[in-house]
Amino acid sequence: METEIDMAELGEKIVAVIKTIYDPEIPVDIYELGLIYDVFVNEDMEVKVLMTLTTPNCPVAESLPMEVEDKIKSMKMIKDAEVEITFDPPWSQELMSEEAKLELGML
């Protein structure tokens, strides 16, 4: 049971780190923007992030996933991190959080 609590806490810490990364064209962090589809952590403390981009030819298609990987890898407990990009389902404004929509004046 304690391990589950630790993993949940670790998941929250990973999300907190991801929330420090912003889309360069939109003043909202990539988590609230809905670009992060899932975060997996295995028992070896290796993290896999499934994420998307606003468009397939996004100008930060190379650098944004690397930034996510690097920031997660910099966490003390994490041994490794990998980001997988998917466009299924494609990103849409419906994936944005209420907070992101409010920040962008969409509510």
Molecular structure report:
With 107 residues, this protein is α+β, with helices and mostly antiparallel strands. 32% of the residues lie in helices and 17% in strands. It has three helices and three strands, in the order αββαβα. It has a three-stranded mixed beta sheet with strand order 1-2-3, covered by helices on one side. The model has no long low-confidence stretch (mean pLDDT 91).
Mean pLDDT: 91
CATH architecture: 2-Layer Sandwich
Assembly state: single chain
Overall geometric form: globular
Largest sheet, spatial ordering of strands: 1-2-3
Radius of gyration: 14 Å
* Number of separate structural domains: 1
Can you tell me the CATH topology? GMP Synthetase, Chain A, domain 3
What are the low-pLDDT stretches, counting only 5+ consecutive residues below 50?
none
Order of helices and strands: HEEHEH
DSSP strand content: 15-25%
The structural class is alpha+beta
Question: What's the topology here?
Answer:
Elements: H1 2-18, E1 36-41, E2 46-51, H2 63-73, E3 80-85, H3 98-103
Looking at this protein, list some descriptive labels.
single chain; 107 residues; alpha+beta; GMP Synthetase, Chain A, domain 3; three-stranded mixed sheet; 3 helices; 3 strands; 32% helix; 17% strand; globular
Explain briefly what this protein structure is:
Residues 12-85 form the MIP18 family-like domain. The chain has helices at 2-18, 63-73, 98-103, and strands spanning 36-41, 46-51, 80-85. By secondary structure, the protein is α+β, with helices and mostly antiparallel strands.
